[in-house]
Design goal:
alpha/beta, Nucleotidyltransferase, domain 5, five-stranded mixed sheet, 5 strands, 36% helix
Length: 135
């Protein structure tokens, strides 16, 4: 007989600290992968506070910086390369949204060239990325 009266078994493994560690590592992984996909840094213009939902795993981001350089997701491209890559992506995914991110100082022509390429390919889901205005 046990003199202390404590019949609790200590054979169980406490997995709570291990689960906490895995959740923290998963959170760090998610933050780092989404931060690396943003592409070139641009100063976005301001817009209304009602966002459009063009996010998704198959969406493509086209960035035009203030020097007129174009990047598809994070890869710098020319207009001809942009059209070829979008056409190749369209062959595998017929309907996909495109988000155009133009710097505030970008010449209007650079953004219009990108939108023109999307129009030639028949891409109808085109959004322009902006930031919410200061209240």
């Amino acid at each position: 007989m046990d003199a202390g009266g404590d019949d609790k078994s200590y054979d169980d493994i406490n997995v709570t600290p291990m689960v906490d560690l895995y959740l923290v590592l998963l959170l760090i992984f998610i933050i780092m992968t989404t931060a690396g996909v943003q592409g070139m840094k641009v100063d976005l213009p301001k817009s209304s506070s009602k966002p459009a939902d063009l996010s998704g795993p198959k969406s493509r981001a086209i960035t035009v910086n203030n020097q007129g350089q174009i990047a598809l997701d994070t890869v710098p491209v020319t207009l001809a390369e942009l059209e070829a890559r979008l056409k190749a992506h369209q062959a595998s995914v017929p309907e996909f949204p495109v988000v155009v991110r133009g710097d505030r100082q970008t010449q209007y022509e650079g953004v219009m060239n990108v939108i023109d390429v999307c129009g030639r390919l028949g891409i109808t889901q085109v959004g322009l990325a902006t930031v919410a205005p200061d209240q």
